[in-house]
Amino acid sequence: MKSLSNNLIEQLLTFISPLALEKALIAVSVFLLFWLLAKLFYRKVLSWLLHMSNKSKSKWDDRIFTALGKPLQVLIILIGLYLALDILLNSVSQEQLLLKIFRSSLVAILGWVLYRLSASTSILSQEAQERWNIDSILIPLLSKALHFLIIALVIIIIAGEWGFDVNGFIAGLGLGGLALALAAKDMLANLFGGIVIILEKPFIIGDWISIPGVEGTVESISFRSTGIRTFEQSLVTVPNSTLVTQAITNYSRMGKRKISFNLGLSYHTSKEQIESVINKLKQMLRDHPGVDPETILVNFESFGESSLNVFLYFFTKTTVWAEYLLIKEELNLKIIEILEEEGVEIPFPSRNLYLLNTEETKS
Q1: What mean pLDDT do residues 26-34 have?
Q2: Which CATH number fits domain 257-342: 3.40.630.30, 3.40.190.10, 3.40.50.920, 3.30.70.100?
Q3: Is the whole model's pTM more than 0.85, yes or no?
């Protein structure tokens, strides 16, 4: 038994030559060195860079350092692993295989960096939003499109590195996209409708809008649908493809808000009283701070069935619903006060019926 174990040890020592053992120790040392450098970079150098960037006025540097931190750490370890394996390998074919793996890994790390920089919360996305006035809702879509493009490019470059035919892959992406477009026609219609809404901005979140059958406040806008909170507090989800084909009334875009109505005066009102009431109403509207003075119309318009109709037409400066109602209340009370001052009554709708006595007529 001893002789057998001794023979195995002798054969193992013969196989592991001093040169091979030396190369293995060097390779392990190189890898450990780069691994320690990666740890040192991430814990010390990157922390110092982030600390210094926080003191600067620029908002670019700290975000970029954060995005590059992990990929650079992995890159340093990858370089160490490549150098360590290159020391151990002897044949040219093995070295070429290792080089392909290393190049593919570099492409993947570069794609990782670009992927992180193109995130919707990245500094580049925020800078693009501010510089080109891109709607905040559009940023996630652009970010996802860039992510898809980056992943596709990484796959194509790595496939080309390994000798695969990338032309067939690209053609397959085109045919797959066409099949997807045909299968998801309604979804794409809503998507393009959402893009139109975001770019043209017929309304934004918080606007009070009205479309056929729905009226309320816009609560959410996505690429598939728009959420409208009605005044009954129910949430109506409207597909974007429907919104872009219908007339939209945006009440929040009003510069001012209209008030118009007929004020009925009793038929017992004299001509002088009517003129005095009209003049006082005009002056009251001009003096009210909530009424727009540019357009104020107060006129004796018509003879109604049971009243003399004075037509009032003017605008409030505010478009806010609650403030608008408060102004209407103040004006209505002022109108009652003016009518009381002039001794003018507002009549109830009434009719006079005359009954003919047929017996007296015969006699």
Answers
A1: 85
A2: 3.30.70.100
A3: no
